[in-house]
Design goal:
Layout (H helix, E strand, L loop, with lengths): L3 H30 L5 E7 L9 H12 L12 E10 L2 E10 L3 E7 L5 H14 L32 E14 L5 E12 L3 E16 L3 E16 L8 E22 L4 E29 L2 E15 L18 E13 L1
Parallel strand pairs: 1-2
Antiparallel strand pairs: 2-3, 3-4, 5-6, 5-12, 6-7, 7-8, 8-9, 9-10, 10-11, 11-12
Helix pairs in contact: 2-3
């Protein structure tokens, strides 16, 4: 008959379409069964971990990984998570405990100095723990898989241990210790404990020329001992207030300058006129410091020196006047700091 071929064609099309429909239904059911489990979340930060993520911040981080409101939605939440965060030396430890339809625990460690890496790790770990089928939804005829949160955590890589010493070098600026403002260099070593640090610093202003009207050259060499108080829960070496003592020697010498017209240059001759004077002052200062990468960081400080003993330095000469001494002098420096590692 003339209608037989079209009928058979439609029958074949329906027959071929059947497996594809069945596969799509199976895939849809598998996807539905593997939907993430809803849960409630509580975060507890111990003393020293106040800068770490709190509950209201961790919830959107987890849901951004999963792509669903598994913690903030209104659906029933058969699982509850308790997250405990504590300080561990220079780093942090996060413990995730599950109860309800799922139970178990997971520990995450981070060597610091900040808490951002640990916070991201908590979000990803919670997302993985809540992903997939729960125990009741698994096929009873299939062997029970080993659950992720029941696996023994691998031994964490031990963090790099910082020794309680730092070394710093930098540029130094002074106003008032010798005539006017002058630049120099500084180097220091510091011993650090959780609350305070003790430091020794070498300071030099090696060359400060002045005309009076004959050329004078000033120099200053000093050592400074200081104690700094540090907020124990800030990241390593954050901000601090310091007090100490500055002891040094101020030096001035007079030279003779002569113009050489033939070679168009000025020649200076030492006249063996010089003077030295001791300098002692109390120091108060503030400092900020930050480790940037590995053992290397930067620092900046500023402070005041209040002299309580200083010998005058001058070279008696006709027509030469020396400036009055400043009651308070000002110093600042900035440079690199290095943390010693084992």
């Amino acid at each position: 008959m003339g209608f037989a071929p079209p009928f058979r064609t439609r029958a074949r099309r329906l027959t071929l379409a059947g497996p594809f429909v069945s596969c799509a239904l199976v895939a849809f059911e598998a996807e539905a069964e593997a939907a993430p489990i809803r849960a409630s979340l509580s975060v507890y930060r111990e003393v020293g971990a106040e800068t770490c993520v709190e509950g209201s911040e961790l919830v959107p981080m987890v849901e951004a990984v999963v792509g669903e409101p598994i913690l903030s939605g209104t659906d029933p939440k058969p699982v509850h998570l308790d997250v405990h965060i504590r300080r561990d030396g220079d780093g942090y430890v996060g413990l995730i405990e599950l109860s309800g339809a799922r139970n178990g625990s997971r520990t995450i460690t981070d060597s610091g100095p900040g808490c951002d890496v640990l916070s991201q790790g908590l979000a990803v770990t919670i997302a993985v723990l809540l992903d997939g089928k729960s125990k009741d939804e698994l096929d009873p005829t299939a062997p029970e898989p080993e659950r992720f949160y029941d696996l023994k955590a691998p031994e964490p890589t031990p963090p790099v241990k910082l020794l309680p010493f730092t070394l710093a070098v930098g540029a130094f600026y002074d106003f008032g210790t010798i005539d006017g403002s002058n630049g120099g260099v500084t180097a220091s070593i510091e011993a650090v404990i959780p609350i305070v640090s003790f430091g020794l610093t070498f300071i030099t202003l090696p060359h400060a020329p002045r005309d009076r009207p004959e050329p004078h050259v000033y120099r200053f060499f000093a050592g400074r001992a200081r104690v700094c108080t540090r907020e124990p829960y800030l990241e390593l070496f954050g901000a601090s207030a310091c007090a100490g003592v500055l002891a040094g020697n101020r030096h001035v010498e007079r030279t003779y300058a002569e113009q050489d017209p033939d070679e168009n240059r000025v020649e200076r001759f030492d006249l063996d006129d010089d003077d030295d004077g001791a300098f002692l002052a109390a120091v108060v200062m503030i400092e900020v410091s930050r480790r940037i990468a590995g053992p290397v960081g930067m620092y900046a400080d500023m402070g005041l020196s209040i002299p309580f003993f200083r010998e005058p330095i001058d070279i008696p000469d006709v027509g030469v006047s020396y400036p009055e001494e400043e009651a308070v002098t000002f110093q600042m420096s900035t440079g690199f700091r290095f943390w010693f590692e084992e």
